[in-house]
User: Which sequence fits this backbone?
């Protein structure tokens, strides 16, 4: 029981570190959709698509390699120095390359020069902090991790309020106002991000000061060999996550893409839970891998994760109407609401897939993880290219579900061969079936019947309460 309490505690704190910043971003959806029409919102979406893509390239799997080798080796400082110095050198080089290739990249990304330069600085600072953040996680310092995450999101939110709400009130004219009007409003979202990233980097200096530069090239080669398939899988994951937005802009127009992207953020509740789980689970999987009960622990965690994720899915669908009314007041975006149950189910499968990914990380078969991501990317690209001209934005949502569902199934089958874990497959399948089926029924059959939606939610809660003794024990221990 102590293992699960420790895991739950760290996951809860990492959850706060993940949830609270994303809640801030989520609450800003109301501000962004109020001040930006759907076509302009598509620019905001595209900026962060490219940030995610280049971030994977800039880190080239070093974060996951750091976790693996830090947990294996006695000389942990050597692992820390090698990982951080490697990213410091390569990030500086990549940053210079971005500026050298500015013109072709502007054309590729479809942004103007000012936005591109802000983009490059955000990427620079965020990449340099990957290893320090990972170090806080692997040394079990979730409180400090939470502090830095909240600092970053707080500065970002304040910047959005200043530039999008208060600037015109404070400066009614003069040079400041002429500068402000010389950029589109969406630019100031990115400028706020740059300020937040830069100040967070400065706040991290006391941590960075204790990391002496230096590379053990023999160790670096081993880390790179372990990490580059993770990078490939990461690039393919970005395709799975974001190709739909880029394809919708090209095949259906910026307005459709903007509406889809804003409503897609309603899936953030599942993303938050999955991300919180990932932040707690990754170091847990590695540090517990040599214990005799490791596989049993992984099985219990999988069941608990699926149960809670299903509850979250049904909870969002139960209260979807007030959430939409509160956060997306602009009705021009509401045409994308039918994607919500599909996207929530897709992220449920993505969380399951991440649980299952332990087998290829713990057996050093990260190349097979890359092949699984390739499968998802092929489904995503094919589903969008074929489906958008025929079915519009719904094709994008179903392609996402198809990708993550297929990846989960194949990963489960491969995991049974290379790293068997005694998962309670029947119980997990029941959770998925009831949660996903209930979510679709709530939207398509009982959208205006609050009572029926609430009954479905309560019945599912009773199901997992009876089926998960570890969850019950954990809840009882907290109540005592």
Assistant:
């Amino acid at each position: 029981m102590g293992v699960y309490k420790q895991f739950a505690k760290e996951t809860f704190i990492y959850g706060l570190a993940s949830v609270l910043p994303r809640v801030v971003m989520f609450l800003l959806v109301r501000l962004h959709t109020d001040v930006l029409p759907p076509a302009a919102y598509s620019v905001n979406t595209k900026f962060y698509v490219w940030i995610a893509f280049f971030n994977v390239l800039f880190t080239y799997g070093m974060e996951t390699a750091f976790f693996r080798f830090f947990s294996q080796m006695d000389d942990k400082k050597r692992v820390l120095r090698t990982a951080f110095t490697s990213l410091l050198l390569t990030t500086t080089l990549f940053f210079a390359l971005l500026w050298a290739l500015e013109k072709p990249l502007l054309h590729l990304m479809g942004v103007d020069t000012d936005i591109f330069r802000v983009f490059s600085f955000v990427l620079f600072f965020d990449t340099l902090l990957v290893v320090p953040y990972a170090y806080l996680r692997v040394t079990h310092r979730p409180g400090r991790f939470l502090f830095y995450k909240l600092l970053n999101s707080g500065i970002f939110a304040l910047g959005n309020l200043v530039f999008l709400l208060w600037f015109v009130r404070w400066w009614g004219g003069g040079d400041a106002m002429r500068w402000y009007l010389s950029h589109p409003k969406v630019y100031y979202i990115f400028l706020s991000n740059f300020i937040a990233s830069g100040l967070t980097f400065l706040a991290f200096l006391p941590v960075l000061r204790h990391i002496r530069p230096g590379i053990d090239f023999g160790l670096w080669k081993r880390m790179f060999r372990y990490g580059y398939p993770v990078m490939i899988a990461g690039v393919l994951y970005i395709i799975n996550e974001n190709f739909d937005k880029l394809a919708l802009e090209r095949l259906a127009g910026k307005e459709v893409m903007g509406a889809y992207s804003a409503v897609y953020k309603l899936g953030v509740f599942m993303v938050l839970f999955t991300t919180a789980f990932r932040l707690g689970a990754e170091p847990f999987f590695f540090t517990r891998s040599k214990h005799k009960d490791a596989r049993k622990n992984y099985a219990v965690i999988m069941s608990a994760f699926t149960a809670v994720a299903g509850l979250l899915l049904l909870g969002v669908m139960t209260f979807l109407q007030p959430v939409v009314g509160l956060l997306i007041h602009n009705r021009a975006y509401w045409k994308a609401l039918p994607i919500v149950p599909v996207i929530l189910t897709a992220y449920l499968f993505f969380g399951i897939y991440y649980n299952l990914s332990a087998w290829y990380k713990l057996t050093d078969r990260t190349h097979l993880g890359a092949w699984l991501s390739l499968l998802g990317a092929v489904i995503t690209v094919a589903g969008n290219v074929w489906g958008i001209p025929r079915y519009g934005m719904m094709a994008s949502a179903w392609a996402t579900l198809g990708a993550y569902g297929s990846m989960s199934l194949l990963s489960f089958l491969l995991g049974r061969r290379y790293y068997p874990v005694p998962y309670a497959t029947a119980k997990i399948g029941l959770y998925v079936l009831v949660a996903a089926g209930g979510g679709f029924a709530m939207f398509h059959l009982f959208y205006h019947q609050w009572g029926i939606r609430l009954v479905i939610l309560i019945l599912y809660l009773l199901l997992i309460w009876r089926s998960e003794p570890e969850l019950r024990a954990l809840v009882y221990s907290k109540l005592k």
The chain has one domain: 2-479.
